[in-house]
Amino acid sequence: MTDNRIRNIVIVGGGTAGWMAAATLARILGRDYASITLIESDDIGIIGVGEATIPQMATFNRMLGIDENEFMRATQGSFKLGIQFVNWGRQGHTYFHPFGKYGVDMQGVSFHAYFLRLHQLGEAPDVDLWSLQAMAARSNKFMRAIDAGRSPLSDIAYAFHFDAGLYARFLRSYAEARGVVRCEGKIVDVKLRGEDGFVQSVVMENGSEVEGDLFVDCSGFRGLIIEQALQAGFTDWSQYLPCDRAIAVPCASVETWTPYTRSTAHKAGWQWRIPLQHRTGNGHVFCSEFMSDDEATAILLANLDGAPLAEPRTVPFRTGHRNQFWVKNCVAMGLAGGFIEPLESTAIWLIQSGLSRFLTMFPDKQFNQADIDRYNRIMATDYEEIRDFIILHYHATEREDSPFWEHCRNMAIPERLAEKMRVFRSHGRAFRENEELFNDTSWFAVMHGQLLQPQGFDPVAEVMSLEETRSRLAHIREAIANSADYMPSHRDFIRENCAA
Ligand SMILES: Cc1cc2nc3c(=O)[nH]c(=O)nc-3n(C[C@H](O)[C@H](O)[C@H](O)COP(=O)(O)OP(=O)(O)OC[C@H]3O[C@@H](n4cnc5c(N)ncnc54)[C@H](O)[C@@H]3O)c2cc1C
C-alpha cells in the first residue's frame, strides 16, 4: 500500500497565527507523526497588534494544556470581561458588551424578554445591572468562577488581554519543546510542481529550499503562498466595513487596570484601549477616505491615558477574506486567510477555529477536494457571520455628526443582518443563528446598546405576571450586585495569581 500520510509540514510565518498553528499541530499530532518546520523572518517581523481576545481562548489554552497563570505572567496579561463602547450609539452615550449571559432565562423564555417588558415601562433603565461581568467591570473587579452553587459567582465568563510579541515567544517555546524546528530567514520564491501546481518548496534568500507535503501559510496580509503563488483571490468587504487603516501606539500603564477593552468612536472610526500589566495598548482604526493619517494620529495621541512609549505605527489593512482559504496543499491561517477589523477581537479566534476545523479535515497526500471544499465553505460562513455582527455597530447608530457616520448609517447592509434588525425592532428578539460565534446575549447587548428601539416586547414574557417579573428581576439584580461586591479588584487578583 502507498504511504499517503503527511510527513512533512512547513509553516510559513512566526506571528500569532504561525506559532498557534505550530503549537496546535505539535500537540495534536505528537512528535512522530510528521516533522514540523516553521519559517519566519526577523527582518520582516510580526504585525505586533492583536492583544484582545474572547472567552473561547481559554479552550485553546486548555487544549494545549497551558497553565493559565503561567500564560498570563509570560505575556504581561490582564483579564477581560467584555468591551465598553463609548460614543457609538450617539456621542456621550456608553454601553457595555459583556461576556456571559444577562440574568437567567425563566419558564423557557429568554431573560431579554422580561427585561424589555420592564424597560419599556421605564422600570429597568440599565441592563448592566443584570450582568455580573458588566457590574464587575464597572468597579474594576475580577475573579475566576468558584464553586458557589446557584450564585452568579459560579459562572464568570472572561477572556484575556496580552502582549502579542510575548505571546508569540511563549508559544514558540511551547512548540520548540515539542519538536517544532524554527528556521529563520526570508523566503524569496515559492516553487510549484509542474504536473499539478501543488507547492513543492519555498526558496530562502540564501538559495536553500524547504520542501513540504503540507504548507500552512501564516505569512500575514501578503499571503505569500495562498495569494502570491496560488492566487486564491480575495472577497473584499470594504463596502460594508470601510475602515482600512490603524495607527497603533503603546502608552504608560495607569494605576487602575480595567478588566475590559474600551472602544471609543471618533469622527471616522474608533480607538481601542487595552490595559496590560506593563503598558496600555492603543490604536485608532479609521477610514482613509474620511481621515488622513496625521489627523488620526493626532486624535489618538490626544486620547491616551499616559505618555506614549513608542512612535505611532501605521497598519494598513483590507477587510475580507481569500476566496479559498485552502488551495491544493496550502491552507492559510491568520491574516494570510483574511481579516475583519478588530472591533470585537475576533481575529485570534478565527485562527483558533481555522485550526480546529482544519484538524477535523486533516488531509493525506491525496488532498481530497471534497474535504477542501467543505473547509472553505465553513470558514467563509464563520467570517460572514462575524462580519454582520461588526457591521451592526457601525450601521445602527444615531450619529450624524460626520460624513463617515452618515455613510455608515445609510450604507446597504447584508440581508441577513437587515432581517435580524427588523426582528429586533418588532419585539426585541435576538437570536444566535446556527453555530455562529456571537450568541443571543451579544446580539441583544449590541442592538440595545446601539439604541435600536423595539416597538414592543416578546408577548411570551406575559407568561409571568408583572408583579412576579419585578420581584424575580429584583432578586437577580441583588444577587449580581452582591457577587460583584464580593470580588477582589482586578489588580489585586493579578498580583496574587499571575503578576509578571
Ligand atoms: C490594527 C489591528 C488590530 C488587531 N487587533 C486584534 C485584537 O484585538 N484581537 C484579535 O484577536 N486580533 C486582532 N488583530 C489581528 C491579529 O493581529 C492577527 O490575527 C494576529 O496577530 C495574527 O497575525 P499573523 O500571524 O497572521 O501575521 P503576522 O503577525 O504579520 O506574521 C506574519 C509572519 O510571516 C513572516 N513572513 C512574512 N513574509 C515572509 C517571508 N517572505 N519570509 C519569511 N517570513 C515571512 C513574518 O516574519 C511573520 O513572522 C488585529 C489586527 C490589526 C491589523
From TrEMBL:
Pfam families: Trp_halogenase (PF04820)
Record field: transmembrane: none
Keyword annotations of the record: FAD, Flavoprotein, Nucleotide-binding
Binding-site positions, FAD: G14, G15, T16, A17, L335, I348
Keyword Flavoprotein: yes
Record keyword Protein biosynthesis present: no
InterPro entries on file: FAD/NAD-bd_sf, Flavin-dep_Halogenase_NPB, Flavin_halogenase, Trp_halogen
Residue numbers binding 7-chloro-L-tryptophan: K80
A GO molecular-function descriptor: nucleotide binding
PANTHER family in UniProt: FAD-BINDING PROTEIN, FLAVIN-DEPENDENT TRYPTOPHAN HALOGENASE
Protein name as annotated: Tryptophan halogenase
The organism of origin for this protein: Sphingomonas psychrotolerans
The organism's taxonomic lineage, starting at the top: Bacteria, Pseudomonadati, Pseudomonadota, Alphaproteobacteria, Sphingomonadales
